[in-house]
Write a structure and sequence with these properties.
The complex is a heterodimer of chains A (421) and B (413).
Chain A: E1 18-21, E2 27-32, E3 38-46, H1 57-63, H2 74-83, E4 87-92, E5 96-104, H3 108-120, H4 126-143, H5 147-160, H6 172-176, H7 180-190, E6 196-202, H8 206-216, E7 242-245, E8 252-261, H9 269-281, H10 286-294, E9 301-307, E10 312-321, H11 325-341, H12 346-362, H13 366-378, H14 385-396, H15 399-409, E11 416-420
Chain B: E1 5-8, E2 14-19, E3 25-32, H1 46-53, H2 65-70, E4 74-79, E5 84-91, H3 96-107, H4 113-132, H5 139-147, H6 162-166, H7 170-180, E6 186-192, H8 196-207, E7 229-235, E8 241-247, H9 255-267, H10 273-281, E9 285-292, E10 300-307, H11 313-329, H12 334-352, H13 355-368, H14 373-382, H15 386-396, E11 402-409
Parallel strand pairs in B: 2-6, 7-11
Antiparallel strand pairs in B: 1-2, 3-5, 3-6, 4-5, 8-10, 8-11, 9-10
Helix pairs in contact in B: 3-8, 9-15, 11-15
Classes of the chains: A alpha+beta (421), B alpha+beta (413).
C-alpha cells in the first residue's frame, strides 16, 4: 500500500461580510448561512482593561452584566433570558468589552429586548457586588493552587510590568477595591452606541436585521460622553530574566519562556507564524517531537504568538516533572539555537506550511468560524484582506528567511523564563 | 434534520455517511467500541495508553501524523470509559490520505518497545499534570470507587494508579490491540463534502479487505445500592467541597432524558435552583453544579459544590438535600420546565453547526445502537413531563442510594 497523492489546497478565499449601518450609525458586519435557525450576535466596544477607571473594573462589570435593574432583580432578569433558552454573556478583554447573545431565531425579538436592558439599565446592586467579591476571592485561592496559573501571572507581570493593563495581577486587594460607583461610571462611559460595533453570524434575513435595528439602532447616545483611549501606559519590563516560584509538594513544574512581541501589523508576522508552527505550533513541531515524542518529558509543549491591539506575546509553555526540569529547559533552548544555526529542510517546511494552510482554510469554513476571524482582525484595526495576504506570505516564505527570523527573534538572552512548581 | 446513510461492510465494519456540501472539509471519524470499562481491574489505564500508541505508525506508513498534516489535515483522539474515538479532518481533495492511514492502523499497527517506553512516560506526565498536581485532581478516583461496587466504572480512564501504566508490557499492549481493534468493533463515519457513492467506494477500497475476528460484547453488572455511603478526605485545597452522587439508569433508558432535564433545572444557568438558592440567597456555596455522567451503562447523577468559608458541612449538605427533596415533593411548573427545554434545544442547535460534532455524534449514537438518535433526541427531551421528573427524583434521591464525599482542607482536620 502506498500513500495516495497529496493535493495542494486550492486558493483560500475569505468571504466578504455583509456590511450595513444601523439607524444610529452603529456598523454591523454579518456572515450568513448556517443550516439551523440560530443567531449569534456580538457587540464589541472599544474598552476593556485599557480604559477602565481602576483595576478589574472591566472584568467585574462583565460579571455583573445581568445583576439587575431598578425594576428587575438579578434572578428575574436571568430567568427571563433563560426562559427563551438564550444566552447573554459579557467578557472583558484587554482592549475590548464584548457582549454576546446566542439564541434561536424564533426568540430573537424578546432576546434583543433583554439584551438592550442589559446594555442600558443595569444598576449594579451593592449586594450583588459584595457576593461577587467574596466568591472571586475564594476562587482566586483555588487558582493560586495551580502552577500554570502562577506561572502565567508571573510571566505577564514580568513582561509588561505591574502597572500595565496587559501585566497587572489580580489579588485580594484589587478585588476588594472595586466599588459600585466605579462599575456604574465605567458602564456609562464605555457602553455607548458610538463606541460599539455589531457582528452577526448564523441564519438571518431582513426580518432579523430589522429587529436588530429596532432594538440596537434606536439606542441613543448619552450626551456629553467622549470615548477617550488612554495610550499613556508604559511597559515596565522586569530586570530579572529568571523567575522561580516554589510551591511545596509539587510533583511537576509549569514553565513559560517568552517575551513581548509584535502583533499582526508587523511585516514579519505571517512568516513568523510559519516559523512558530515548525518550532512548537503543532503536533509535529520540533518541541513536541523532541521533548514529548522522543524523550517523553511532558504531556504537551507548545509555543505560540498571541497578538494584542498594542502589542503581542511570544511564549513557550509546558509542564514537566521536577527532576526533568533542567533537561527540559536545555532542550527548549537547544531547539531555538538549531533554528538559528541550521537551515530547515524543505520537506519540514512543506509539511508545516500545508498544515497551516489547512488551518487557514478551516477559518473560512462557515459563518461561526468566519465571524471569529473577522472580529480578531477588526479589534486589531486590520481589514480582512490581510487574511489572504498572510496566506500568500506563508506560501512564499523559504528556509533562508525562516533562519533569518530565528536569528532575529529567538535569541535566548532576550527571553524571560518563569518556572512555578 | 441530519441526513445520513448507514452500511455494514462484509467484515463487520459499520460505515455512516453524512453529506454537507457547504464545507471544504471531510471528517474521517473512527470509533472503537473499547474504553476503560473493558480493562482488567489490576491493569487499568490501558485503553487510554493505547490511544497514544495508535500514533506510532503502522506497517505501510512509518508515521501517522505527517502525511495527514502534509495533506492540510488535523487529527486528535479521546478515550472515555465506554469507547475510544479518533478523528481526522482534511480538505476534501485529500480524503484518501486519512482513509489509508486509518485502515492500516486498524490491523497493522507498529507496536514497538521504543514508542511504548515514550508513551508510558507521556501518559504518566498527563496523569501527574491533571490528577495529582491539581487541586481536587483525584476526586474522580475517589468518587468512582465509592459509587460503583462491581462495574468497571470504578476507575477513571487515566487509570486507577500510576503504577498500572508504568507496568504495562509490550505483550499486554499487543494482546489488547488484537482483542479490540477489529473492523467489526469499529464505526467509521465519513462526513462533509463527499458524495455517498464515493464514501462507500473509498470505505470498501481501504477497509473492505481487512480481516479480523469478532469481539464478544460484555455485559457489566452493578448491584442496587441499599445503604448510604459517606467518606471524608483531607487534602491541600483552599475550600471545602462536597459531592453527593447517585447511581442512575443507562443511556438508553427512558429515564435518561428526565435525569438530564432534572440536572438542568437544578443547575443550568444563573436562574437555576441550586445557583439561585444556595449561592445567591443562602451564600453557602462559592459555586455549585449538578450533572449526569452520560455513560452507556449505569450512570451517575452528581451534585458538587465548593463551600463558602465559615459554613458548616452539615448545613451545606442539608441545603442540597432540601433542594433534592423539593424535586420529589413538588412538580416543576410548566414554565420552568419549558425554560430548560428551550436551553437544551438552543444548545443542540448550536452544537450541530459544527461538522465535527455531527460526525462524532453519529458515531456515538451508532455505538448506542441507533444512529438516528441524532434526529430523535430533540423530541425525547421535549417529551419529558413534570410527572416524569418527579418520579425520577423520588426514586433516585434517597438517603440509602446516596454517596457523600467530603473533600476538605487539611487545616479543618
Amino acid at each position: 500500500m502506498i500513500i495516495p497523492q497529496i493535493h495542494d489546497i486550492d486558493k483560500i478565499t475569505f468571504p466578504n461580510p455583509e456590511e450595513i449601518r444601523l439607524k444610529n450609525n452603529i456598523p454591523l458586519f454579518g456572515f450568513n448561512g448556517t443550516q439551523n435557525d440560530i443567531i449569534r450576535l456580538d457587540l464589541i466596544f472599544n474598552s476593556g482593561r485599557w480604559t477602565e477607571p481602576a483595576r478589574l473594573v472591566a472584568e467585574s462589570t462583565s460579571k455583573l452584566f445581568k445583576s439587575g435593574t431598578a425594576a428587575l432583580s438579578s434572578f428575574q432578569l436571568n430567568e427571563q433570558i433563560d426562559s427563551y433558552g438564550s444566552t447573554i454573556k459579557a467578557t472583558a478583554g484587554y482592549n475590548t468589552f464584548n457582549v454576546s447573545l446566542y439564541c434561536m431565531n424564533r426568540f430573537l425579538e424578546p432576546s434583543l429586548q433583554l439584551l438592550k436592558t442589559c446594555l442600558t439599565e443595569i444598576t449594579f446592586p451593592e449586594h450583588e457586588l459584595e457576593l461577587l467579591q467574596k466568591n472571586a476571592i475564594a476562587k482566586l485561592k483555588v487558582s493560586q493552587e495551580k502552577n500554570d496559573y502562577l506561572a502565567d501571572v508571573a510571566f505577564k507581570k514580568t513582561v509588561f510590568g505591574e502597572t500595565h493593563p496587559y501585566g497587572y495581577e489580580t489579588n485580594e486587594e484589587t478585588i476588594r477595591n472595586i466599588t459600585q460607583a466605579l462599575l456604574q461610571q465605567f458602564y456609562k462611559q464605555d457602553l455607548q452606541p458610538n463606541n460599539c460595533t455589531v457582528f452577526i453570524a448564523g441564519k438571518y434575513g431582513d426580518t432579523e436585521l430589522q429587529l436588530i435595528d429596532k432594538y440596537l439602532g434606536e439606542w441613543t447616545q448619552e450626551q456629553g460622553i467622549k470615548n477617550t483611549e488612554n495610550n499613556g501606559f508604559q511597559v515596565v519590563k522586569s530586570d530579572r530574566k529568571n523567575i522561580r516560584i516554589t510551591k511545596e509538594k509539587s510533583v511537576q513544574a509549569s514553565i513559560i519562556i517568552g517575551k513581548e512581541f509584535f502583533n499582526k501589523h508587523h511585516e514579519d508576522y505571517a512568516s513568523f507564524v510559519l516559523l512558530n508552527t515548525i518550532f512548537g505550533g503543532y503536533f509535529g513541531s520540533r518541541l513536541m517531537s523532541n521533548i514529548r515524542e522522543e524523550k517523553g518529558l511532558t504531556y504537551g509543549i507548545h509555543s505560540g504568538l498571541s497578538t494584542l491591539k498594542h502589542s503581542g506575546v511570544f511564549s513557550i509553555q509546558t509542564d514537566t516533572n521536577l527532576e526533568n526540569l533542567d533537561v527540559c529547559l536545555r532542550e527548549i533552548y537547544l531547539e531555538m539555537e538549531r533554528l538559528q544555526n541550521e537551515l530547515i529542510p524543505l520537506k519540514e517546511i512543506t509539511l508545516a506550511r500545508n498544515y497551516l494552510l489547512g488551518k487557514f482554510l478551516g477559518r473560512t469554513d462557515g459563518p461561526f468560524n468566519q465571524i471569529e476571524v473577522f472580529k480578531s482582525y477588526f479589534v486589531e484595526n486590520l481589514t480582512i484582506n490581510k487574511f489572504e495576504d498572510f496566506v500568500e506570505t506563508i506560501k512564499q516564505t523559504d528556509a533562508l528567511s525562516l533562519q533569518g527570523l530565528a536569528q532575529k527573534y529567538l535569541q535566548k538572552d532576550t527571553m524571560y523564563e518563569v518556572v512555578a512548581g | 434534520m441530519i441526513d445520513y446513510s448507514r452500511e455494514v461492510l462484509d467484515n463487520g465494519l459499520t460505515l455512516i455517511h453524512h453529506h454537507d456540501k457547504t464545507t471544504p472539509f471531510v471528517i474521517v471519524n473512527t470509533l472503537y467500541k473499547v474504553g476503560a470499562k473493558h480493562e482488567d481491574e489490576h491493569r487499568t489505564g490501558f485503553a487510554h495508553l493505547f490511544e497514544h500508541l495508535m500514533f506510532s505508525g503502522s506497517k505501510h506508513f512509518a508515521d501517522f501524523d505527517k502525511p495527514l498534516q502534509e495533506a492540510g489535515g488535523e487529527n486528535n483522539a479521546f478515550t472515555n470509559n465506554d469507547y475510544t474515538n479518533y478523528y481526522d479532518m482534511v480538505p476534501a481533495v485529500n480524503v484518501e490520505i486519512p482513509m489509508c492511514l486509518e485502515a492500516d492502523r486498524m490491523v497493522n499497527l507498529n507496536i514497538n518497545k521504543k514508542s511504548l517506553d515514550v508513551q508510558r512516560k507521556v501518559v504518566c506526565e498527563e496523569f501527574k499534570e491533571n490528577y495529582i498536581n491539581q487541586p481536587y485532581g483525584n476526586v474522580w478516583h475517589i468518587l468512582r470507587e465509592m459509587v460503583y461496587e462491581k462495574h468497571p466504572y470504578r476507575w477513571p480512564t487515566i487509570g486507577k494508579e500510576l503504577k498500572h501504566v508504568e507496568d504495562a508490557t509490550l505483550e499486554d499492549v499487543k494482546a489488547f490491540y488484537s482483542k479490540y481493534y477489529q473492523p467489526s468493533n469499529a464505526i467509521l463515519v465519513l462526513a462533509g463534502n463527499i458524495e455517498k457513492e464515493q464514501a462507500s467506494t473509498l470505505a470498501k477500497t481501504y477497509f473492505g479487505e481487512l480481516t479480523g475476528s469478532a469481539v464478544e460484547k460484555r455485559i457489566f453488572e452493578e448491584p442496587e445500592q441499599t445503604m448510604a455511603k459517606e467518606k471524608t478526605v483531607y487534602e491541600d485545597v483552599p475550600l471545602n467541597a462536597v459531592y453527593v452522587a447517585f447511581k442512575i439508569c443507562d443511556r438508553l433508558h427512558p429515564d435518561y432524558y428526565a435525569s438530564d432535564v432534572t440536572s438542568d433545572i437544578l443547575s443550568n444557568g444563573t436562574s437555576s435552583r441550586l445557583h439561585q438558592k444556595l449561592v445567591k440567597e443562602e451564600k453557602a456555596f462559592v459555586e455549585i453544579d449538578a450533572y449526569i455522567t452520560s455513560s452507556d451503562d449505569i450512570g451517575m447523577f452528581v451534585v458538587e459544590g465548593k463551600i463558602t468559608d465559615g459554613i458548616e458541612l452539615q448545613k451545606a449538605t442539608d441545603l442540597i438535600w432540601a433542594e433534592l427533596k423539593k424535586m420529589q415533593e413538588e412538580k416543576v411548573n410548566e414554565s420552568e420546565l419549558q425554560k430548560c427545554k428551550n436551553k437544551m434545544l438552543t444548545y443542540m442547535n448550536f452544537s450541530e453547526a459544527s461538522l465535527l460534532n455531527r460526525a462524532i455524534s453519529l458515531a456515538y449514537y451508532e455505538l448506542l445502537g441507533n444512529a438516528n438518535l441524532i434526529n430523535e433526541e430533540e423530541e425525547q427531551y421535549d417529551a419529558v413531563s413534570a410527572e416524569h421528573i418527579q418520579q425520577f427524583a423520588q426514586k433516585t434521591f434517597t438517603k440509602e442510594r446516596s454517596n457523600t464525599l467530603f473533600y476538605l482542607k487539611k487545616e479543618s482536620k
